[in-house]
Amino acid sequence: xxxxxxxxxxxxxxxxxxxxxxxxxxxxxxxxxxxxxxxxxxxxxxxxxxxxxxxxxxxxxxxxxxxxxxxxxxxxxxxxxxxxxxxxxxxxxxxxxxxxxxxxxxxxxxxxxxxxxxxxxxxxxxxxxxxxxxxxxxxxxxxxxxxxxxxxxxxxxxxxxxxxxxxxxxxxxxxxxxxxxxxxxxxxxxxxxxxxxxxxxxxxxxxxxxxxxxxxxxxxxxxxxxxxxxxxxxxxxxxxxxxxxxxxxxxxxxxxxxxxxxxxxxxxxxxxxxxxxxxxxxxxxxxxxxxxxxxxxxxxxxxxxxxxxxxxxxxxxxxxxxxxxxxxxxxxxxxxxxxxxxxxxxxxxxxxxxxxxxxxxxxxxxxxxxxxxxxxxxxxxxxxxxxxxxxxxxxxxxxxxxxxxxxxxxxxxxxxxxxxxxxxxxxxxxxxxxxxxxxxxxxxxxxxxxxxxxxxxxxxxxxxxxxxxxxxxxxxxxxxxxxxxxxxxxxxxxxxxxxxxxxxxxxxxxxxxxxxxxxxxxxxxxxxxxxxxxxxxxxxxxxxxxxxxxxxxxxxxxxxxxxxxxxxxxxxxxxxxxxxxxxxxxxxxxxxxxxxxxxxxxxxxxxxxxxxxxxxxxxxxxxxxxxxxxxxxxxxxxxxxxxxxxxxxxxxxxxxxxxxxxxxxxxxxxxxxxxxxxxxxxxxxxxxxxxxxxxxxxxxxxxxxx
Length: 706
Known about the structure:
Layout: H1 3-23, H2 25-53, E1 60-65, H3 68-79, H4 87-92, E2 99-104, H5 110-115, E3 121-126, E4 132-136, H6 142-170, H7 193-224, H8 227-231, H9 237-269, H10 273-277, H11 284-309, H12 315-334, H13 353-363, H14 369-393, H15 423-451, H16 457-482, H17 487-490, H18 498-524, H19 532-545, H20 550-578, H21 583-599, E5 600-601, E6 604-605, H22 610-627, H23 631-649, H24 659-662, H25 669-690, H26 694-705
Parallel strand pairs: 1-2, 1-3
Antiparallel strand pairs: 3-4, 5-6
Helix pairs in contact: 1-9, 2-7, 2-9, 7-9, 7-11, 7-12, 7-13, 9-11, 9-14, 11-13, 11-14, 14-15, 15-16, 16-20, 18-22, 18-23, 18-25, 20-21, 20-23, 21-22, 22-23
């Protein structure tokens, strides 16, 4: 079946699933009717709450007095500079000073006006020696209670400052008991209400919109008895599930967007937008940011809910699965309301928690590149893993109405051996590799930061090798073992033509100059680049590395990465993607993944490494496809890294490698010409040595794809 015909069928499947989902009355209720009714009611309830809780658009309190004489005296008290709190106290309260609008209650006693909710406070002044100020507030009214507290504090500051002035006049040596100095750390501005409330609302919006479509398109199919006919169609099972996923994502997005539009429109029309954003203007920028976040939330929840409902055998069972999930989803959403929780460390890759914190930071105007990238990549990985699980369950014995198996059967190894992993297995492996690699690299950095002084430099190198082995080595191996995939074909361990090894050595000897020029190009267009501090730090590391034996340096930065990374990217992932993708797309995808993993290292975002490592990944991908094996790529990777490490170790012996490298300049033209000629000669040898086996590779690829 051609790719064009298959794409057409997938598109028709998506249209069919979406059309049937939108026709459902429950979807229409969730999508349209609930937002139109819910948010006006919530707006009225919120307005009433704000009126009774004292939250006001400006910090102005209404004070009622019975006579003009009382009002003039009270105004003189408040206008006296001695009634203002010290700067340290005002700063601790947000820096602003409350204002009082003193009004003469005509024809009504101030206390009665307070009962009628016309004012915040009733003040009566008895003109004695000294005058007595009686302040009356309304019990249970937050605004009135707050106004009384502030007015009492202002009058107390007036009395205190007057007393200190008199004390200094009577005793010139008088000093106050203590001077108060207020300072603060952390964020410069207070977290806006928009950034704390909206992430929780996004969770509720997206999960509400995805629940019913996810149940109906999986458990509903089985209850209607249409699962068997659906599985009998000539379309692969994963494409059927993917069409359902697209339908659930679209419905979840539409539901969230309509809810979002209804919420902001209601707040804007009702004049309460300032409580959320601090301004009466419509927050177009914030809305655009939220729309981008909705894609992440909808994609994640749709995949998760489809995965869970694929276990269910009935509509009620699916609801029983999802109700606890909906309740648990609220807990991460509440993290946006908690101060001091940052998008870093394990929280940057925690499911749902990471994107909730990402939403909070974006809406607050704060952006952490490392945490943001970790949150986005890990969320995509979790969604892919959930879809991989759902595709393995959807329509087979584990989910049909006559199933005699349990959820635990999913974790059993398949009985049949397969030559290469499926795309679902690759997605599941990647979703596990992202958090494991993040925790492993950050854990190593944290360990060396704490115990680095107690560990020798050689031991640090061995820890680096161990971390690489436990991530890019162990995770693909375990995935191949659990999936019962043949190791030889999965990791592409076939022996290529011997002449190709000579070619890849030449490519490795010349490709390092291309990597350096790619790095300089990236720095020139503003992608990364090393600061002077980073350059000095790198040179210091190079000087320290001279204490390590050369063989350990090559083992750590050349041999181990060449073997382990190639088995992962040009082995496991390459064979899985080549099963369903063209060679060019497979090479490109594995190269981009290779570049991203090298950018995302430890707690730093080394974006300057993306272009050079992606370029290296393209070369390695071409070698892997052309030779049909991962072994030549290992050798080329080893030569490339080894040559870089040797040159870095002995850079003072190379005249061109002095100040020019420190200034991130281009290499001498003669070096570029010679190195490029060597690399092109090596590529020609690889192409010539594998030309005869080209037809064999085409047959093997066709067999794998079928």
